[in-house]
């Protein structure tokens, strides 16, 4: 089932999300629905707050970046209750977008390597280090469960320049090729 994606401006996107237990109701169905929702919107990552659930869960499919990084061919992962153990390396800029902030893309600087401890969809505990575009997507999605959006990383000047566009998104004055849920203005 395709779920509506929460648009910029909703407070759920600014909240720190909560850990979940293995017995979380309908977890597998929720994960399947998140994948369906992400693919329908042509995204490479989706975090639970973006479909209205303030829980520490996000999904990633980096395979559209296979041309840039061949090892991303089958990079499809589910992260439950993740913790960033370490981030390291030089900061590099990458042009980020977000399904909750349609029509806006900006360069964001983040470190090259990220080590994450997380549970997969079968609740196996895993510690793994990622780099390149995989790290980038994971850092962006991890931010979502911490209540941080990529626009929060921009300079005050950049944010001011985007203010009208962001206001329009929060009010639903934007054309989006997938279903969104807007905050009531
Ligand atoms: Ni996002």
Q: What order do the helices and strands come in, and which of them pair?
A:
Layout: E1 5-6, H1 27-40, E2 45-47, E3 57-61, E4 76-96, E5 106-119, E6 125-130, H2 132-145, H3 156-171, E7 180-181
Parallel strand pairs: 1-7
Antiparallel strand pairs: 2-3, 3-4, 4-5, 5-6
What does this structure look like?
The protein is α+β, with helices and mostly antiparallel strands and 185 residues long. The protein has one domain: Alpha-Beta Complex (Peptide Deformylase), CATH 3.90.45. 24% of the residues lie in helices and 29% in strands. It is built from three helices and seven strands, in the order E-H-E-E-E-E-E-H-H-E. A five-stranded antiparallel beta sheet has the order 2-3-4-5-6, with helices on both faces. The chain has a two-stranded parallel sheet with strand order 1-7. A hairpin with a 5-residue loop joins strand 5 (106-119) and strand 6. The longest helix is centred in the last third of the chain and has 16 residues, at 156-171. It is globular and about 45 Å long. The two termini are 27 Å apart. The model has no long low-confidence stretch (mean pLDDT 97). The protein binds nickel (II) ion. Residues 98-100, 140, 144 line the site of nickel (II) ion.
Key descriptive features of the protein:
185 residues; alpha+beta; Peptide Deformylase; 5-stranded antiparallel beta sheet; two-stranded parallel sheet; 3 helices; binds nickel (II) ion
């Amino acid at each position: 089932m395709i779920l509506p994606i929460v648009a910029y401006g909703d407070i759920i996107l600014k909240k720190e999300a909560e850990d979940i237990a293995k017995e979380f109701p309908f977890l597998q169905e929720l994960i399947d629905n998140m994948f369906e929702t992400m693919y329908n919107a042509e995204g490479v990552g989706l975090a639970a707050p973006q479909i209205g659930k303030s829980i520490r869960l996000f999904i990633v499919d980096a395979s559209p970046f296979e041309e840039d990084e061949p090892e991303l061919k089958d990079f499809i992962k589910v992260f439950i209750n993740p913790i960033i153990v370490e981030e390291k390396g030089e900061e590099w800029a990458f042009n980020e977008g977000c399904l909750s902030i349609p029509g806006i893309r900006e360069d964001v600087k983040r470190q090259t390597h990220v080590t994450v401890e997380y549970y997969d969809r079968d609740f196996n505990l895993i510690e793994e280090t990622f780099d390149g575009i995989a790290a980038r997507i994971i850092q962006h999605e991890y931010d979502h469960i911490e209540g941080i959006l990529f626009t929060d990383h921009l300079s005050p000047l950049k944010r001011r320049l985007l203010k009208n566009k962001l206001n329009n998104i929060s009010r639903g004055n934007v054309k989006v090729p997938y279903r969104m849920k807007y905050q009531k203005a």
